[in-house]
């Protein structure tokens, strides 16, 4: 069998960002509004710092305003909540993202619930979670949204397909399952306690891997020809001692069995930021309707 088609998230996300930039320009020229995204980072987690820097760069490139709020790791919870209240009231800010994870002394759920649901570009506020699960217009979490865009690009209609989501997080697994249900897939959410996981995965036409365990999903777990979306970003040490990024799927094995697969890096990762910009644009347009 020939190797799987590689799903190019870099190329797709670059096209999406171009489209967004065009809409931003139109909003600016015709409505005199510039979409603004505020990102809040508490502490110095190195991975989070990289993400926040990339978000800032992409936001500015797309023609939007970027407001960065970097707070020390020991910032009291009350101060973070006060900052969010200010951003909720700021007419120049259309989207608010608080980078997770937060330091242990801060209650993440409380912070998420302090964000105005209309500005919640992560889609983590219970109002947006509820609206998504009810099939209503909602802010949709960026990684699942980007994954769905790639799936539709590869497969067209998803109607009637068997989808297995491995992972049940609020950030990826659960919203991914909701989106796939909306697309009329038959959805199974598997996780670390699932019995006979390889057999469950083998039923799937679509596999979304979001467990955070390097290369856990093996090639012989896959149905030949299936489509694999690998959400995992794991930094591991290779045999020669160098560090490398790998997904939750054993790529070398999976590429021999799947019909199409996202690489890591260059698959889902760049889609997440493009969808964040898309959500900011949508939030801005809704706030100025
Ligand atoms: N940390 C890891 N992924 C995400 C995400 O999608 N949004 C936020 N806010 N923090 C994250």
Automatic annotation (TrEMBL):
Residues 141-287 form the Tetrahydrofolate dehydrogenase/cyclohydrolase NAD(P)-binding domain. Pathway: One-carbon metabolism; tetrahydrofolate interconversion. The lineage of its organism: Bacteria, Pseudomonadati, Pseudomonadota, Alphaproteobacteria, Rhodospirillales. It comes from Paramagnetospirillum marisnigri. InterPro entries: Aminoacid_DH-like_N_sf, NAD(P)-bd_dom_sf, THF_DH/CycHdrlase, THF_DH/CycHdrlase_cat_dom, THF_DH/CycHdrlase_CS, THF_DH/CycHdrlase_NAD-bd_dom. The keyword Transcription does not apply. It catalyses: (6R)-5,10-methylene-5,6,7,8-tetrahydrofolate + NADP(+) = (6R)-5,10-methenyltetrahydrofolate + NADPH; (6R)-5,10-methenyltetrahydrofolate + H2O = (6R)-10-formyltetrahydrofolate + H(+). The gene is folD. Homodimer. This is Bifunctional protein FolD.
């Amino acid at each position: 069998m020939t190797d799987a088609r590689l799903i190019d998230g870099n190329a797709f996300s670059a096209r999406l960002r171009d489209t967004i930039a065009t809409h931003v320009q139109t909003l600016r020229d015709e409505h005199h509004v510039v979409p603004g995204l505020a990102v809040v980072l508490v502490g110095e987690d190195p991975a989070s710092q990289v993400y926040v820097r990339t978000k800032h760069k992409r936001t500015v490139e797309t023609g939007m305003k970027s407001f960065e709020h970097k707070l020390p790791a020991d910032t009291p919870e009350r101060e973070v909540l006060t900052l969010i209240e200010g951003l909720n009231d700021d007419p120049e800010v259309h989207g608010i993202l608080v980078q997770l994870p937060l330091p242990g002394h801060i209650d993440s759920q409380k912070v998420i619930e302090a964000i105005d649901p209309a500005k919640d570009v992560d889609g983590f506020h219970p109002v947006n979670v509820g609206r998504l699960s009810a099939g209503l217009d909602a802010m949709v979490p960026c990684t699942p949204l980007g994954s769905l865009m790639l799936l539709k690009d590869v497969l067209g209609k998803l109607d009637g397909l068997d989808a297995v989501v491995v992972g049940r997080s609020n950030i990826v697994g659960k919203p991914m399952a909701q989106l796939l249900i909306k697309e009329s897939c038959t959805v199974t959410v598997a996780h670390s306690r699932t019995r006979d996981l390889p057999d469950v995965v083998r039923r799937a036409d679509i596999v979304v891997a979001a467990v955070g365990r390097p290369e856990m999903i093996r090639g012989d777990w896959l149905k030949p020809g299936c489509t694999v979306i690998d959400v995992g970003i794991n930094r591991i040490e290779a045999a020669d001692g160098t560090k490398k990024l790998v997904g939750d799927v054993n790529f070398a094995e999976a590429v021999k069995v799947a019909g199409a697969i996202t690489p890591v890096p260059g698959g889902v990762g760049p889609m997440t930021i493009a969808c964040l910009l898309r959500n900011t644009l949508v939030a801005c347009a809704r706030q100025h309707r």
